[in-house]
Amino acid sequence: MLLKRATATKKTTTQADYDRNRESKTNMVNTFIKVNKTKHAESTCQLKRTS
Length: 51
Known about the structure:
It is a single chain. The protein has two helices and no strands. It is mainly alpha-helical. It has a domain at about 25-50.
């Protein structure tokens, strides 16, 4: 219920807002992927070293 009321009173979002949100989301996703890739690389290196 609170969520619906908040969206109703919120000002209409402009295209700029959408673009800004998309940019920040893309940046977060890219950072997340980078972190996962480095973790994956480290784990494979450790596996090779131990075997």
